[in-house]
Specification:
Blueprint lengths: L1 E4 L2 H9 L5 E4 L10 H12 L3 E10 L2 E3 L17 E10 L4 E8 L1
């Protein structure tokens, strides 16, 4: 099993935690239109068997903003809205994609 990310800062941060997990740089995969879970599933399929991928979205008043790095300025228009970060880890074990979802209010 290995965790793959195109974000070198994310890999460096994860390495600091001393996880017993192979960390690998990967390609910046194209975003697909879909729910946050569909995006994570797509990334896990593209990353290959054995891969664990991470996808983070922000939910603003319950609506997911999937590719937040391109829309951060638009968030200012929603000052005072209820927001929640949702992180999905997706593992491709070759048989299925297993999802693990965590949220931070």
């Amino acid at each position: 099993m290995f965790l793959v990310s195109s974000n070198p800062r994310k890999l460096k941060e994860l390495a600091r935690y001393g996880l017993d997990l192979d960390l690998r740089p990967g390609d910046d995969l194209p975003e697909v239109d879909g729910t946050p879970l569909e995006v994570a599933i797509h990334k896990a399929k593209m990353a290959g068997v054995g891969a664990v991928v991470e996808d983070t979205v922000i939910l603003v008043d319950g609506t997911p903003w999937v590719d937040i790095r391109w829309t951060t300025e638009a968030l200012r228009e929603h000052a005072g809205a209820q927001a929640c970060w949702q992180v999905t880890l997706a593992h491709n074990d070759g048989q299925a994609i297993r999802l693990f979802v965590g949220t931070v209010e």
